[in-house]
C-alpha cells in the first residue's frame, strides 16, 4: 500500500489496509472464540467504492480478500511474521533459474460465484487487463518485471502478453526481465485475481467483480455495499479465510472520527464494527475510556513518516545542505504533533523495523530535538552562513498542518526558513509525482510498504526510474550507486542474502540524506464489543479482514 501522504493514511479505512525489532505488539481481540454468523459493518470515508481488482492497491488481507482470491495471500498470526502462503495456487511459486521464471499450478476444484471453473487463462486475462490505461490505479510491480510489460496496453485490442504463459488450464508461467526474489509477494496483489473474459466490462466491472472468495457482492444501494456468502466458495481449497460473518456491509461516506466514536460507544453498528487508524485528536479520549481502551489494537514499524528533500534543486544538490536539514529537524516535536509516543518511535533509517532487512543505525546522530549548532556549521561550510529559504509542500488536514508547523519551528532555529505550502491531496500528488519538481523543495509524506519487503520501501522512493511521470521518488534522487544497490538486492532469492543486501542499500541511501526519516509510525485501531479474532500485525499494521468473526 502506498500511502502517498500523511493526510491519507486512512482515507479509505477498508480499502487500504513482517516482523522485526522495536515494534509494538500486534493487537488481538479479547475473545478468540470463533462463531459463524452476524453482520460485520466496515465504515469507509469515500462515498464510492470501486472494487475492480485491476485498479486496487488493497493489501492482501483487506477488502479485496473477502471476494477475490489471488495466487498467494498472506498469513498473519499473533506473534509470527507475515509470510506468503498459497491461495489459488498449490504453492508460493517455484523457480529453476534463480528467480527470473516463476511457475504456479492452480488447485483443483476452484470456481467462480456462478459455478464455472477458474482456469489459468482467467488469471492471465485478469492480469493483462491491469495494463489497460483505463484501469490504472493499482500496483505496478508486475508491470515493471514482466517481459514486454513496458509496451503492453492490455487485452482490449486483442493483444496478449507472451511473458504470461498458460500451457494448460491449471498452469501459469511468468517470465521476468530479471531475477526477482519477491515475486511470491507480488502474485498476492489484487491484479492477480482471475477475471472471466465473458463477464468483463471495464467500465462497470468494479461495481460487482465475479467472486472467487467466501463472499460475493449482493447489493449496492443507500450508501453501502453489501456482501453475502458465495455458495461456490469451497473452504477445503482455502484454509486462510474463516468467513465468520454471514454478511459484510461497507458503509460509505462515514468520516473517520464518526466511525471511531460509533465503535467506542457501541452505538448504531458500532458493536459489530471496527475503525481506524484512530486520529491523533481522539487518542486521548480513547485512552481515558477503560472499556474502549480494552478494545484497541496497536501495531507499527512497517511505515515511515518522512520529509523528501528535492535533490534536483541546485541548492539541495549539496550534501551538506541536506545533512543540515536532517540535523536541524526536531523529530521529538513532530512526534508530539502526531499524537505522542502512541503514534510511533523516532526513525533514523529508511527500512522500518517490521521488515526483514532492517538494521538499526544512524548516519547523522543528533538529539531527538535536533542539533542546531552542527546544522549551522554545515550550512556555513556550504556558503549559506545566513541560512536558506525553502518551501515545504504538505496536505491540508489539521493533523498534517500541525506536523508541518512543528518541523518549521525546529528548522527556523538553524536558519532554515521554510514556507509551508498547504494543498489538497490531488494537488500534492500532481506537484510531487507529475510536475517537473519546481513547485517544492521539501515534501512531507508517509510511506508504507505494499508488501513485507524493503523493495517496496526503497525502490519506489529512491530509484531513478521513479522520478516524475507518476513515480513516487519525491526526493528526485538519481544516483547510479543507489540504483545498483536496489537492483542487486531485488535479485536475491535467498532470504539471508536478500536481508544483507537490503541493509546495505539502506545505508547507501541514508548516507546521501535525500530525505529526513521522522518516525516509524504506529496505527491504533478500535473494535466493537461484538468483534472477535481482530488481529493487527506489526506489518502491515492493518487488520486481517478475512479472520474476523462476531460474537452473539
What does this protein structure show overall?
The chain has 14 helices and 20 strands. By secondary structure, it is α+β, with helices and mostly antiparallel strands. Residues 1-27 have low confidence and may be disordered. Helices cover 24% and strands 20% of the residues. The strands form 6 sheets. Strands 11, 12, 13, 14, 15, 16 and 17 form a 7-stranded mixed β-sheet that branches. Strand 3 (72-75) and strand 4 form a beta hairpin.
Gist of the model:
With 552 residues, the chain is of the alpha+beta class. The protein has helices at 120-129, 141-145, 183-186, 256-265, 280-287, 290-293, 319-328, 331-338, 372-381, 398-412, 425-434, 455-462, 480-490, 495-511; strands spanning 27-28, 39-43, 72-75, 83-86, 101-105, 164-168, 171-175, 215-221, 224-229, 247-251, 274-275, 296-309, 344-346, 388-395, 416-423, 442-448, 515-527, 531-532, 535-536, 549-550. The protein is globular.
Give short descriptive properties of this protein.
single chain; 552 residues; alpha+beta; 7-stranded mixed beta sheet; 4-stranded mixed beta sheet; 14 helices; 20 strands; 24% helix; disordered N terminus
Secondary-structure map with pairings?
Layout: E1 27-28, E2 39-43, E3 72-75, E4 83-86, E5 101-105, H1 120-129, H2 141-145, E6 164-168, E7 171-175, H3 183-186, E8 215-221, E9 224-229, E10 247-251, H4 256-265, E11 274-275, H5 280-287, H6 290-293, E12 296-309, H7 319-328, H8 331-338, E13 344-346, H9 372-381, E14 388-395, H10 398-412, E15 416-423, H11 425-434, E16 442-448, H12 455-462, H13 480-490, H14 495-511, E17 515-527, E18 531-532, E19 535-536, E20 549-550
